[in-house]
Amino acid sequence: MHTNTATSRQPLGGSETYFIRSGYSSRDWVEYFLDETDDTVTWQPDVYPYTAARAKELGRDVMIDIGFERADLRFNGEWLNKVTLPELVGVLARVPVSMSLQREDFRTRLADGHGLSVAEFVYSVVMAWDSVAIDADVELGGVDQLLNLQMCRKVMEISEQDPEVVITTPLIEGTDGTGTKMSKSKGNYVGLTASADDVYGRLMSIPDHLTEPYLQLLTEWTDDEIRVITKRLEEGTAHPMAIKRILAGEVVAALHGLDAAAAARAEFTARFSKRSFGDTQNLPVVTLKDHADDTIGALVSRTLDFAPSISAVRRVAQQKGLRLIRETDGDQQATPLTEASVQQTLGEVVSEAGALEGAELYLKVGRKVARIDV
Description:
- By secondary structure, the protein is α/β, with parallel strands linked by helices.
- Helices cover about 45% and strands about 15% of the residues.
- The strands form 2 sheets. Strands 3-2-1-4-5 form a 5-stranded mixed beta sheet, covered by helices on one side. A 5-stranded mixed beta sheet has the order 6-10-9-7-8.
- Helix 8 packs antiparallel against helix 11 and helix 9 (about 210-220) runs parallel beside helix 11.
- The radius of gyration is 24 Å and the shape is elongated.
């Protein structure tokens, strides 16, 4: 989920205004737009009844990241609700269509014969109105927003304002390592307000090839330090898991403090490095009595929230990461669960596991584990 921050001009030492953009769903005026979660589809009008509350939540996350106590968080309904049709048409008449057609995804969709709505052309102008309204000096956004940010500068010129300075940042690739950007809707993200254990666990589960870019984007390591580590990883003199532990610890420490980082590391080690899950604290628990009729897919994605969807659970099963663990006196017996198992109920899967006398059951999904009380 991209986040843009625009800063308005104020006297030096005065109260800064930070206008937070974090996708359409964080706006308080969204009747005509949807969140850009998929660059390949045409967006349709929709209404988010939870928008105001969600905006505050996302704004809080961003404010934590910014850390400015004097910031003034604004909602763009304050000015967009007052825009008249003559005002909008007056600006649109001075904006060339070619500016929007610079977007590669627009050109690709038109070349492939797919639809492109007028609302999609207008969006960047509406976004620019925000910069005009707060007379922005600087706007910070992901590199994928560069063309939209250039539109902000254009509309500010039309409005006889000094164009804002645009600063773009690299996109953070999602924790799944598929090449898509980090996004809550795809479940491949690390939340700023997530618990220390969750942040640590998500970063420990990233593919090895993400270690270097994450060190660059999420830590204060210098380029020289990262090059040394990258070379050692290539030579095999440093273990990827050891570097991930450092990465995860630094990010957790930045968000929650050093003590929380140490505790998260200890908890992760107990949960995934020891043979016995029985020694691990804070494991989520599901009872067979209450969930016997739940399918494994529903249990993992909804009850435990270990995966963003049932389809994601199937993918874990395909990769042999879905297992039923039977533990007796520290000894473990793992039963791989197949794609077909995802549609089976918990009761059926446990029944097929055989005799359980004196044993404890655990469901392992990738690196995540839950205890099953029988």
